[in-house]
Amino acid sequence: MTLRAIRGATCLQADDPVEMADAVAELFGQMVSRNGVRDADLISIFLTCTPDLVSAFPAAAVRTLGFHDVPLMCAQEMNVAGALPKVVRVMAHVDSDLARADVQHVYLRGAEALRADLVDPQQGESAP
């Protein structure tokens, strides 16, 4: 097994704790399923929000998926002029047999604009 980082991001329509929980659970669920990650494979998860998201901790949504013993940390993104608003980003460190090029990073709900190089234009979602 090798240490790999899986990236992902999602956008919210509003700074709402219910939407935060739904969007982060959807994002992290996709990151885990697309990369075949098991609970025991998770080492740590780092989550960030843009400064306009203050209603909830995104890590709380990850806990609702059953990941109770994985170290989680939340932080605020840099406030860069012109940056995409209302974005939650995730970087999960995992033990994996996947080659770096085979890791599937996941961008949802408009966050595809952050990494157009990783998005399959025919499917509108992250490509391998």
Topology:
Layout: E1 2-11, H1 17-34, E2 42-49, H2 58-64, E3 72-76, E4 87-96, E5 106-108, E6 119-120, E7 125-126
Parallel strand pairs: 1-5, 2-3
Antiparallel strand pairs: 1-4, 2-4, 6-7
Helix pairs in contact: 1-2
Provide a short characterization of the protein structure.
The protein has two helices and seven strands; from the N terminus they run E-H-E-H-E-E-E-E-E.
Structural class: alpha/beta
Beta-strand fraction estimate = 25-35%
CATH superfamily: RutC-like
Biggest sheet: strands, sense, closure? 5 strands, mixed
- What is the spatial order of strands in the main beta sheet? 3-2-4-1-5
- CATH-derived architecture: 2-Layer Sandwich
Q: First CA to last CA: what distance?
A: 19 Å
Individual helix count? 2
Uncertain stretches of 5 or more adjacent residues: none
Residue-averaged pLDDT:
90
Shape: globular
Residue share in helix: 10-25%
CATH topology: 60s Ribosomal Protein L30, Chain: A
- The tally of strands reads 7
Give the CATH level 1 class: Alpha Beta
How many domain units? 1
In N-to-C order, the SSE pattern is EHEHEEEEE
Mind telling me the C-alpha Rg?
14 Å
